[in-house]
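We modelled each protein-ligand pair independently. The example shown here corresponds to the flavin-adenine dinucleotide entry; the chain sequence is given first, followed by the ligand as SMILES.
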Amino acid sequence: MAKLLEYNATLVAREDLEPTLAIFRLEPDDKTRPEGPWFVPGQYMTIGMNREVKEGEDDPRPHSVRRPMSIASAPEDRDNVEFYIRKVGTPESDLPLTHVMWDIKVGDRMFCRPVPVGHFTIPGTVGDDDKRLKLCVAAGTGMAPFISIARSRVRRDPKARLDDIAIVHGASYPSSLGYREECEALAKTNGLRYLPAVSRPGADWKGWKGRAESIVEAARLAEFEEAIGLKEGELVPQNVAVLICGLQGTIANTIIGLLGRGFVPDNKKLRRALEVDEALPATVFWEQYDNTPVIDVKNAELVADLRRQLHGALAK
Ligand SMILES: Cc1cc2nc3c(=O)[nH]c(=O)nc-3n(C[C@H](O)[C@H](O)[C@H](O)COP(=O)(O)OP(=O)(O)OC[C@H]3O[C@@H](n4cnc5c(N)ncnc54)[C@H](O)[C@@H]3O)c2cc1C
C-alpha cells in the first residue's frame, strides 16, 4: 500500500463563504518556529490529506494528495496558518485535495508541511525598499498572498500606512469576495487602496463590474486609474509595480493589457520571446495556481503583436 501522509495539524477554524469557497485555519502540532517572522507574506505551504483506504480494496486512485496553498494569515500569527480555498469544479486529478478537504470539520486532522516556500513576496519581487505603488491583482483565491502582506504590516504596527498597496480582487459574485470587510476597514484606517470587482453582479452592485483583468482594458484604464487614486496615464512602471495571483486567464490578460504601458514581465521565456533587454528590470510578477502556459510563446502572431506593443511603449 502506498504510504499515507502522517497527519500533523488540526483544523481549528473554518468559515464557509459559499458552498465551494472557504477559509481554513490549521494549527500545526510542531510549535518550534524560528525567531521573528516565520514566513514571508506571499509564501505558500503544502497541505494534504489521505482518503479512506479499505482493506483489500480495488481502488486505483492514489491514497493521498498534497497541494501547495498560499498562506493568507500573517507571520505574526505564530500558532496557526490560514488558507483561502476554492473547491474546484472540474478537477484534473484522480484524487482532488479540495474534494477530500471539503468534508472536514473543526477538530479534524490533516497534513501540513510547516515549511514556507516561494518568492512571490515583496522582498522576492520588487524588494522591500521599492517606494512605488504595488498593484496587486487577485482572481478569486489569488487574494491569499495579498491579504497576508497587508495583514502583516498592520500586525507589526496598527498605524502602518498601506497607501502603497492597491488590491484589486476579482470574483464572480459579491459573496465570493473573501476578506472584503477586512479590506474595506484597512482602506479606512490605514489607506489601503481596495477595489473589489464583480463579474456577475446583481442590480444592487455599485462597484467595479467585470473580471479583475478588466481594469487594464484600454477603454477602462483611465477609469481604473481614477478608482485607485492615480491620475490618467500614471499607471506606468515609473510609478507602479504589478503583482498578479490566480489562474492563467487573469494573469495573461493583465500582462497583455499592461505591455502597452511598458510593463516588463518577470519570466525568462516570455522576455526572450518579447526581445526584452536583459538589463531591464521586471515590473510585473505573478503566482499561477493552474498549469496552462501563461502566454503561448509559440503563437508567432500573438507574440509579434505583444512585442510591438511593449517596444512601442518602451520607446516613448
Ligand atoms: C504556489 C501555489 C499556491 C496556491 N495557492 C492556492 C490557494 O491559496 N487557494 C486555492 O484554492 N488554490 C491554490 N493553489 C491551487 C492548489 O494547489 C490546487 O491546484 C487546487 O486546490 C486544486 O487542487 P485539487 O487537488 O483539488 O484539484 P486538481 O485535480 O489538482 O485540479 C486542478 C485544476 O483545478 C483548477 N484550479 C486550481 N486552483 C484553483 C483555484 N484556486 N480556483 C479555481 N480553480 C482552480 C486548475 O484549473 C486545474 O485545472 C495554489 C497553487 C500553487 C501552485
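The mean pLDDT is 96.
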